[in-house]
Specification:
The protein has 832 residues and is an alpha+beta fold. It is built from 18 helices and 40 strands. Residues 790-811 are annotated as: Disordered.
Length: 832
């Protein structure tokens, strides 16, 4: 017989002893296999603190369903139910009755589990019996498929990875139903893993995403106390990628041809792993890895919508770099999990930014279409290639089958898991508000009474949040409230009385005896702020929201699918190429607030609008032949400094010349009379010169230093071949060729004729020191050419600010980023 143990720390007694019931012993034979309870259950009893020797955590995860959405957030979930989530089994082939995850001979890898993870979370978030019944058949088959040795799932594959997804949704299911089959099932499977992993270790996706497996192993340990589960958790951590080191030391591209550590979905999903592992290891390196990783990612790949660019591999900071939808939902979940473990308020800020910007930007307002990629500057969503390493003709077109067929199965848990992690229990017996939006959290006080805290707010569109407590009697417990770092003058009142010590970027703790009807009000004044992006362009934010130009959209159906789940091309029907008249340091912008509708992310229903003076830039247009010239700096981390889009054809020689004088760096291409890049940087004064290629098959001819040829070279990574003045390199993640005897150069003119294949880049290095074989293992500068075949309807990068225009001044409207399907977010700034 298995007994669940709801363990709480000694200091948790005041409220948790009242609110959270320890589950009763539940024999595995109580229900026949295949029979299950489907009704409503007191999920809050499953709030469980870590057993020794695991580290204690400041917050304890609430199970799915403890937090219910209200207002517009409820409507988002209802639209998801009537949209792609509800219709998925009619639309997608991998979810038909022949699915390998239903015992058939159809797809038996990740697609079915991906979908059920979101379907089940949505079902219990909405308390929807029909969705629960639809999820049940997948749950039953997974449990009933378990073999005598503990392994389960389709016989068509033995991959550990898709089973990790099943573990995740079985935990959600168990916490809602108390189905006595789940814990014995998990126990047998984890025994199998412990025995089998030494000879059949994690590979590829499983190795990248082992943190999800460890999370459920530790959850099971907290209930059963079986210390062999700790051995399994250690084994899984040992076989996984070294994520703490990858995030902390910026090693995303340090694994040769292995793309997994720089795949955007892996990077987003694995962000939680160091925090999860820290509960067992107690290592400070694991505890700090999340913050260090986010700092590295945002510096190199960051975006104003809270995401980092990845198409599908980590890309860059251009206005037309995209992010994959799967990365949104995985990042939201990673932040939610890590926040409960680490207690860092900044993780809540990050979670809100992704949930309220990037996630809704990826779907239509009625949830009947999605886009695989979305860009900060996306002035058309049409069929065509964009020059990405993983490119798809319909990658940014709204439709049910946009891009590669993974996100259409995986995105469904985004809103439900965000809602689940809006609240947590505290280690010492209270409740913590981790994110804000209209919702209510309900926990049982006894067999017949409940504590409910309702969050009434227009947030993130409005700045006031009111929490109303409904309790059967007076209860003493701490209420902990996250205060966003972006808010300079936050305030909190309880029944109209102000609370002292409210600080941005921290948690505010209110300990008192709470009465039925008590009200807590958070006031989070939002001011418009400006940030700098590609080519010194500017983006505007207000609170957690980024803002984009409101463009009239012309929608044209591209493909007919089931019912109204069609695919569209979207083109601009109004001007988009504007420069803003705005002060970066203190933008004076008119803010118009309207009421929040049920669909605040509909383009025509934006609750908040920014009105900004602007002028059109007729010369800022669309790019057809794609190419990119970029100057960057490395110090074991790569930092882009300046770049420009320019026609660069693959397979054709291009002449590249760099003139470096003092802190001025000027770059010319194909005998251009004016430099395409003219940038100042004084980070490095002297060093070597050389050649470099990233993921590119390239040829370098006529390499000249101050007009003279170079004869002696030394390789640092990559595979090079040289003959006379010609140097060739194969397509590898890192290839550097440095000139011997030229290690102490300052002012130089460096030239070469470069023929590069499509994809990746190739170029010249200068003022280089401390070279290694690592991808960005050097100190110095690099100018690279990216040559890309194909055409698209993407905009050019914003012209270098400041700019001038002879066009008449207008007032343009900016609306929330998530409300737009085509948009401009990074604007040139008009000269004062």
């Amino acid at each position: 017989m298995l007994m669940r143990l709801a363990r709480v720390t000694a200091v948790a007694a005041p409220l948790l002893a009242v609110l959270f019931h320890a589950p009763l012993p539940c024999p595995a034979a109580d229900l026949p296999v295949g029979k299950h309870p489907v009704g409503k259950h007191p999920a809050a009893k499953h709030v469980i603190a870590n057993r020794a020797p695991l580290q204690s955590t400041p917050y304890l995860r609430l199970p799915i369903g403890a937090v219910r959405p209200e207002g517009w957030l409820l409507r988002q979930c209802e639209l998801q139910r009537s949209g792609l989530t509800g219709a998925a089994e009619r639309i997608y082939d991998a979810l038909q009755s022949d699915s390998g995850w239903l015992g058939g001979d159809g797809e038996g890898w990740e697609k079915g589990p991906y979908y059920v993870k979101g379907l089940l979370a949505l079902a219990y978030t909405l308390d929807d019996d029909q969705l629960k019944q639809r999820a049940q058949k997948w749950v039953d088959w997974a449990i009933e498929s378990q073999r005598a040795d503990g392994f389960f799932g389709p016989a068509s594959n033995d991959d550990w990875w898709p089973r990790m997804v099943v573990l995740y949704y079985l935990r959600d299911y168990d916490e809602q139903t108390d189905d006595p089959r789940v814990l014995p099932f998990l126990t047998r499977y984890f025994q199998h893993q412990l025995a089998a992993l030494p000879d059949r270790p994690l590979q590829d996706w499983g190795r990248a995403r082992a943190g999800d497996n460890i999370d459920i192993v530790l959850w099971t340990y907290n209930q059963t106390g079986d210390r062999k589960l700790l051995d399994l958790a250690r084994l899984l951590a040992d076989q996984a990628y070294p994520w703490s080191s990858i995030y902390t030391d910026n090693r995303f591209y340090d694994f040769g041809s292995d793309f997994h550590p720089h795949h955007i979905v892996n990077v987003s999903q694995a962000l939680k792993m160091p925090a999860v592992a820290w509960q067992l290891s107690g290592a400070e390196a694991d505890r700090r890895a999340f913050a260090a990783g986010v700092a590295n990612l945002e510096r190199q790949y960051g975006r104003v919508d809270g995401q980092v660019s990845g198409t599908e591999m980590l890309s860059g900071r251009k206005s037309t770099d995209g992010v994959e939808l799967c990365a949104d939902v995985e990042r939201i979940l990673s932040n939610g999990v890590a926040l409960t473990i680490l207690g860092d308020a900044e993780l809540g800020d990050q979670m809100e930014r992704v949930a309220y910007n990037s996630l809704p930007a990826h779907t239509t307002a009625n949830m009947r279409q999605l886009t695989y990629y979305q860009f900060p500057n996306q002035v058309a969503a049409t069929r065509g290639r964009h020059g990405f390493e993983q490119d798809y003709d319909n990658a940014n077109m709204p439709g049910p089958h946009s891009g590669f067929p993974c996100c259409c199965y995986n995105w469904h848990f985004g809103w439900p898991k965000f809602i689940q992690h809006m609240w947590a229990a505290t280690e010492d017996g209270g409740l913590a508000a981790l994110a804000y939006g209209p919702n209510r959290v309900t926990l049982p006080v006894n067999d017949s009474d409940q504590l409910t805290i309702t969050q009434q707010t227009d947030y993130p569109f409005g700045d006031t949040i009111t929490l109303t407590i409904a309790a059967p009697r007076a209860l003493t417990f701490p209420l902990v409230l996250r205060v966003p770092a972006w808010c300079e003058e936050p305030s909190i009142t309880v029944n109209g009385q102000p609370i002292d010590g409210v600080k941005p970027g921290a948690f505010c703790r209110v300990q008192r005896e709470w009465q039925d009807g008590d009200q807590v009000e958070l006031h989070l004044p939002m001011k418009v702020e400006a940030s700098t992006w590609a080519n010194d362009s500017v983006a505007l934010t207000r609170g957690p929201l980024a803002f984009s130009l409101k463009i009239d959209e012309a929608w044209e159906k591209s493909n007919d699918y089931l019912d109204n789940f069609d695919e569209y091309e979207v083109r601009p029907a109004s001007a988009w190429n504007y420069a803003l008249r705005v002060n970066r340091d203190a933008p004076e912008v008119e803010v118009l607030e309207r009421g929040v509708s049920d669909t605040p992310f509909a383009t025509d229903a934006a609750p908040v609008t920014l009105r900004v003076p602007a002028r059109r830039l007729p010369d800022w247009g669309m790019r057809t032949q794609l190419g990119r010239l970029e100057l960057g700096r490395a110090d074991n981390n790569y930092q882009p400094l300046a770049g420009v889009d320019t026609p660069l054809e693959p397979g054709r020689p291009h002449e590249l010349r760099v003139e470096c004088r003092g802190d001025q760096i000027r770059v010319f291409v194909d005998n251009s009379k004016r430099p395409l890049i003219d940038h100042r940087d004084d980070s490095f004064a002297r060093g070597a010169i050389g050649l470099r290629a990233y993921e590119n098959r390239a040829r370098f001819d006529n390499v000249r230093l101050d007009g003279q040829p170079i004869d002696d070279w030394q390789e640092f990574g990559g595979e090079w071949s040289s003959e006379a003045s010609e140097h060739r390199v194969t397509a590898k993640p890192s290839g550097k060729l440095l000139a011997r005897g030229e290690e102490d150069l300052g002012d130089v003119t460096l030239e070469a004729t470069i023929t590069a294949a499509a994809g990746g880049n190739a170029g010249l290095m200068f003022r280089v020191s401390d070279p290694t074989d690592r991808l960005d293992g050097y100190r110095g500068y690099y100018v690279g050419l990216s040559c890309v075949a194909g055409e698209s309807e993407d905009s050019e990068e914003p012209p270098q600010s400041p700019v001038t225009s002879n066009q008449p001044e207008e007032i343009v409207e900016l609306i929330p980023f998530g409300s737009t399907k085509i948009r401009v977010t990074y604007f040139p700034v008009l000269e004062e």
